[in-house]
Specification:
The complex is a heterodimer of chains A (113) and B (114).
Chain A: E1 3-6, E2 11-14, E3 19-21, E4 23-26, E5 32-38, E6 44-50, E7 56-59, E8 62-65, E9 75-77, E10 86-93, E11 102-103, E12 107-112
Parallel strand pairs in A: 2-12
Antiparallel strand pairs in A: 1-4, 3-9, 5-6, 5-10, 7-8, 8-9, 10-11, 10-12
Chain B: E1 4-7, E2 10-13, E3 18-25, E4 31-37, E5 44-50, E6 53-57, E7 64-70, E8 73-79, E9 87-94, E10 104-105, E11 109-113
Parallel strand pairs in B: 2-11
Antiparallel strand pairs in B: 1-3, 3-8, 4-5, 4-9, 5-6, 7-8, 9-10, 9-11
The chains are: A mainly beta (113), B mainly beta (114).
């Protein structure tokens, strides 16, 4: 079936550290891939997306590259800030079965000052 | 305008009450969704409407009744809920194009059933 697997959290980093959150997917067809972020008490915000192989999505210093050969979409940021503390969800959609968005379990990030 | 607006933000209801959650978007999206999110879990899809017609019901109990009055509005009618239905209810919308399937989410309604 179609699924998304993310590294388990929580991830705790010091400010200005490098961030990587791993994400791999299983899908029939050619999905679009997304990273969403959820701050405490809020809804989900789209952070970045990629719609085809080798596309790089980027936003607010975050980046992720759609790797079809490894079925991965890892999230990276060179220097995290305290304000980046949130839950990050990797997701896919646009595959057979309509426009459902399938989410990974989420990775909680804590950034210490 | 890239907003999906949900009301109310918070709702406390008894198990015999009837209430409704409302969602509105003005992005011209023809797909709208209801998700349920429990603490420390990802959102779970409940319903999908495309072109104002219900296209997916993920085996949701009948005490949850969705309605899509027009292309901008989505309601979720609640009746005889159980305490375990307490959760964050998220509305989302998206286009129905293969290259633009990202969902835009509202801030959610935090529901407590007492």
């Amino acid at each position: 079936g179609n699924s998304v697997t993310q590294m388990e959290g929580p991830v705790t980093l010091s400010e200005e550290a490098f961030l990587t959150i791993n994400c791999t997917y299983t899908a029939t067809g050619y999905p679009s891939l997304f990273w969403y972020v959820q701050y405490p008490g809020e809804g989900l915000q789209l952070l970045l997306k990629a719609t085809k192989a080798d596309d790089k999505g980027s936003n607010k210093g975050f980046e992720a590259t759609y790797r079809k050969e490894t079925t991965s979409f890892h999230l990276e940021k060179g220097s995290v800030q305290v304000s980046d503390s949130a839950v990050y969800f990797c997701a896919l959609s646009g595959i057979t079965g309509g426009f459902k968005t399938i989410f990974g379990a989420g990775t909680r990030l804590f950034v210490k000052a | 305008d890239t907003e999906v607006t949900q009301t109310p933000k918070h709702l406390v209801m008894g198990m015999t009450n009837k209430k409704s959650l409302k969602c509105e978007q003005h992005m011209g999206h023809r797909a709208m969704y209801w998700y349920k999110q429990k603490a420390k879990k990802p959102p779970e899809l409940m319903f999908v409407y495309s072109y104002e017609k219900l296209s997916i019901n993920e085996s949701v109990p009948s005490r949850f009744s969705p309605e899509c009055p027009n292309s901008s509005l989505l309601n979720l009618h609640l009746h005889a809920l159980q305490p375990e239905d307490s959760a964050l209810y998220l509305c989302a919308s998206s286009q129905l194009r293969g290259d633009k399937t990202e969902a835009f989410f509202g801030q959610g309604t935090r529901l407590t059933v007492v």
